[in-house]
Amino acid sequence: MDSDSDSDSDGSHVSATPPRDPVPPPPPRISQPPPPRQVPPVSRKVASSSSRSKPIAPKQQQPPDHSEEAPVPSSSSPLSPLFTNLPFRICEPSNLSQPTRVSSSVSSFYRLRRASLTSEEKSTPECQSDSVNCVPELPQVVTDPPKPVRRKPPNLITDSVTSLPVKAPVFRSGGEGNFVKLNLNGKRGKKFPSKYKGASKSRSKFAYRGKRYKKSEADGGEGETLLEEESDLQKQREEEDDGFISSVEDAILAVKTEASDENLTKLLNLVYGYDSFRDGQLQAIKMVLGGSSTMLVLPTGAGKSLCYQIPAMILPGITLVVSPLVSLMIDQLKHLPSVIKGGLLSSSQRPEEATETLRKLKEGIIKVLFVSPERLLNVEFLSMFRMSLSVSLLVVDEAHCVSEWSHNFRPSYMRLKASMLYSALKAECILAMTATATTMTLEAVMSALEIPSTNLIQKSQLRDNFELSVSLSGANRMKDLLILMESHPYKKIKSIIVYCKFQYETDMISKYLRDNNITAKGYHSGLPAKDRVRIQESFCSNKIRVVVATVAFGMGLDKGDVGAVIHFSVPGSLEEYVQEIGRAGRDGRLSYCHLFYDADTYLKLRSLSHSDGVDEYAVAKFLTHVFSSETKQHEKICSLVIESASHKFDMKEEVMQTIMTHLELGEVQYLRMLPQINVCCTLNFHKSSPNTLAARNTIVAAILKKSHVKQGLHVFDIPAVASSIGFATTDVLAEIQTLKMKGEVTYEMKDPAFCYTILEVPREICSLSSHLTKWLAEIETCKVRKLDIMSSAAVAAINVSNTSELSAGAKQTQSLQSRILNYFNGDGNCDTPSKTTQNCSFLRADIKVFLQSNRQAKFTPRAIARIMHGVGSPAFPNSIWSKTHFWGRYMSVDFSVIMEAAQTELLNCVDRNAALAA
Ligand SMILES: Nc1ncnc2c1ncn2[C@@H]1O[C@H](COP(=O)(O)OP(=O)(O)OP(=O)(O)O)[C@@H](O)[C@H]1O
Description:
Blueprint: H1 46-49, H2 107-115, H3 119-123, H4 125-129, H5 131-134, H6 201-219, H7 223-257, H8 261-272, H9 281-289, E1 294-297, H10 306-314, E2 318-322, H11 326-334, E3 342-345, H12 351-362, E4 368-371, H13 373-376, H14 379-387, E5 391-396, H15 418-425, E6 430-434, H16 439-448, E7 456-458, E8 466-472, H17 477-486, E9 496-499, H18 503-515, E10 520-523, H19 529-540, E11 546-549, E12 564-567, H20 574-581, E13 591-597, H21 599-608, H22 616-626, E14 638-641, H23 642-649, H24 653-665, E15 671-685, H25 690-696, H26 698-706, E16 708-710, E17 713-717, H27 718-725, H28 729-741, E18 745-758, H29 765-800, H30 808-825, H31 843-853, H32 861-869, H33 878-881, H34 895-917
Parallel strand pairs: 1-6, 1-7, 2-4, 2-5, 3-4, 5-6, 8-13, 9-11, 9-12, 10-11, 12-13
Antiparallel strand pairs: 14-18, 15-17, 15-18, 16-17
Helix pairs in contact: 6-7, 7-8, 9-10, 22-29, 25-26, 26-27, 27-28, 29-30, 31-34, 32-34
The structure holds adenosine-5'-triphosphate.
Adenosine-5'-triphosphate (ATP) is lined by residues 153, 155, 180-181, 274, 277-278, 281, 298, 300-306, 435, 556, 558, 582, 586.
């Protein structure tokens, strides 16, 4: 497989349908519809009065830190044998402190999971023996778990990295299992019995009698008596739950009357079982309850979700949560406390599921709705809010995605401009949340969402329970990984994530680990959704010790006892690094994060950073096509077939989407984007004749007019049909679907396309394309710089381990921590010298030979530079061009240097051809 083509850039392809619950949810018990709005008496000055919250500092250029800089070691440099430079503290287990026990009242959770199974499911062998197999594949759209979950784990995560060196290690034996919500063991119940000790009297009684009942029934004994007892217990349980719900209602009412610390803490304790809020949580909740839009920056695993869940219980209207990944939404939906009814809407859902969610939303059953940015601003969705629903709070999760200067910019997030959100959704308040944003990113996000600089709550972006280490690696990286995993402390850690860059690596490494008796599975976005769910759940229930994954795994993963995160390759940025190590130590205990630094991989990733770059004339050609003469009619629905356009303009789909979104949301609104659909439809009429149907159906009549007949089938363009009768493309699609249900037609769709209508034609395509190209070039440069900064931090940590008195582990942790904190507190733009070469004597000669041997192709300087860097593009795919002798040969030479040389050689070539022709 080609390495760059299967790189998981960000996991955005991850999509899965939410799990379907085996039993239909009981009707909601919390008062519905939502009570009338009562604004709690919270001071709106909360943010400014807090000593911790601070306004965004003005942009600061980080001084270059050359003292720790080192030349990138060549991959051919000899490897230090058996990790002589491994920075771990090697201690005998006897010297280590005992694992911190986290008390967790899990019996109610177990009961909840059991209760949600039908009796047949409870008795299936899978359910008895393998909880993973019991996990439904298709998640249910609306959560309505039958029983409340009450847990009481401690508040372990501290707020900031203040004291260095790192805390004394708390030895992780791994025997405690998973203390957090993703634990699905509850289905099987085998791992929990010892924990029932701490459960309430009535619950342990229930668990015990349940067993007795089964046993005596099997014996053919006193079934009836036991049935009575069981029904008594059922009643008792219901009374208990009614009591619980009314206590929650009372606590909610108390907060509505006065949103005091005490009342909020009572509610927290009742619903979540936690004794206190973590740093930043209370402040954020009060801000939101007071109606102030807020930017919340807390480290990974600090409990950001709670900052919208609690307000959602209090505020009268709906809380909308925008998330970048469907898998993330599913996880968050699953983890809502039972007293909050949740739902999900995403573009990957089946229409019936979406309809059901919309119905529940209208009926007031759903209080928290997770929605993708694409869905959020679609016309149908918006009209529903305009007509009947009120949005009390709009949450932008992973808010850094709004900014093009973040590591994970999403064009669809550009749609979340505050002006649109306030006017289209009438959202009363916005809460933007992230764990990883530089000052520059925060400024961009807050400006887009119109959050005042005084409303920033920002804590340290790094937890202090990581031991961070880096070692130099190379051709023997897999062996190095195995040695690491067999050495202390890794060999005792029960839950480990290994991050790598390419999909093929996940399979290769997991197989290698399995061959060496380590239970491991590969995970990447190319796997079927069903397999991904299964792997994640096996990992969460500790059936798999190691998951070897691309970036597609882990965002939002809340498994408390992940004890180590290992980076098989250097991450693309410090943000990515912090997000990924953030999967470890969420239970507050010391966790270990090791990074294998390999210069070849760094160069390869640097080359890949150029795969989104575009040239001005390509952008101009693209714009000319978008605004071509056929598309200019007012209200005409235009379409751009993605695959052919991508090939024609040599632009990746995401780049075209970024440009289109900019044309919609930039200073001038040139166009309006419509839902992306397959535009080419081939229709086969079965029952009635086409003309009979057309006589009573406007859409069919339009289809007959606009289609051509090929082998008896009608082939047509959906936007063309829709435009001709002034309908939306979705109306045409819905009608075809209805006809199919009636047995009238069958159809096939192809050619996914961007659909849009033109609002204004740009007066000067040239200046617009120049502006767009400059902007895209800045994004490209920003991406490369982020990688350089990450690489430089890793190299500095390797070098620093030989230069001071501290132990290697502590020195490296300290070095990486300070780099990370400086980076996030500055504008993220530290001056890091590039590690690529600026000149190469044979480059021009090689380009010349390359051009001569490929006369038939139409190259651009960028296309040549990509080939020399071993990066495929839509018009020059790896499958064909990786066969050339020059593929990836100049990876170590700066991309712009190759582009320049290619430009000169291409001009020489044109001159030579002209001379020959003359
Ligand atoms: N006050 C608290 N006391 C104890 N545990 C808490 C508290 N608040 C949240 N938690 C727990 O912390 C864990 C992490 O919470 P959450 O998933 O919201 O983190 P996050 O900040 O969104 O992390 P990430 O950015 O990595 O997704 C959850 O298991 C949650 O229940």
